[in-house]
Amino acid sequence: MLRSTPSRHAQPALVALAATSAVALSACSAFAAPQTLGDTVDLDGEAPAVALTVTAATAHDAAELGLAGLLGTDLDGVPWLVDYRVDLEPGAREGLSFEDAPALNADAWEGRTSSTLTLAAASVGGWSAADCPGVVDDPAADALVSCHVFVVPEGQTLDSVSVEGAGTWDLSAG
C-alpha cells in the first residue's frame, strides 16, 4: 500500500531539512540587505584590500568638473560622483594597482537609477580618480580614498551602487 504522508521515521528528517533551509534563506536575505552611505563591508579574499565604505554620492555639473563625453562631446546626462574608501592591509599602499584589489576597479561597480536603469561606472574625458572634488587621499595612510563617475540620464537619480563581491549601497536613504 502506498502512503501519501511521510512515515514517523522520516518526519524528524523533514523537520531538520525545513529548519536548515529556513536558516540558510534568512542568512542569504541578511547578506542581500543593502548597505547605506557610511556602512563598511569586509572584502573577503580581496587582499590587500580588507574593507570598503561608500561615503557619498552627489550629482554635479559636468562643465564645473571639466567632464566631456566621447571625443570631447557633451555628456549625455548628469555626472554623479560616488566617493569611497578602501581600507588596506598595513603597508599595502605602496605599489598598489587596481589588479591587486578588484573592488577598486570601475568594472566592478554598477549603479541603478530611479527608473531602475542599470549603469556601469563611466570612463569620461578629462577625468581621473585623482580629480574627485572634496576627496582627500593620504598616500601615507593604509587606505585609498577615491570616487567613480556614473552618468545618469537627465531627470533621474542614482539610487544605488553595487560592487562585485562586496554588496549594494542604497543611496536614496542617505
Task: Report on this structure.
The protein is an alpha+beta fold. The chain has one domain: Immunoglobulin-like, CATH 2.60.40. The chain has two helices and nine strands. It has a five-stranded mixed sheet with strand order 1-9-8-5-6, with no helix packed on it. The chain has a four-stranded antiparallel sheet with strand order 2-3-4-7, with no helix packed on it. A hairpin with a 4-residue loop joins strand 5 (109-113) and strand 6. The radius of gyration is 22 Å and the shape is globular. The termini are far apart.
How far is the N terminus from the C terminus? 63 Å
Q: Mind telling me the CATH class?
A: Mainly Beta
Strand count, sense and closure of the main sheet?
5 strands, mixed
- The counted number of beta strands is 9
Helical stretch tally: 2
The average pLDDT value, as a whole number, equals 75
CATH topology (level 3) name: Immunoglobulin-like
Helix vs. strand class: alpha+beta
Strand content: 25-35%
Q: What's the architecture in CATH terms?
A: Sandwich
Strand order of the largest sheet: 1-9-8-5-6
Order of helices and strands: HEEEHEEEEEE
Alpha carbon gyration radius: 22 Å
**Helix percentage range:** 10-25%
Number of structural domains: 1
Low-confidence segments, given as residue ranges, are: 1-7, 9-30
Q: Shape, please?
A: globular
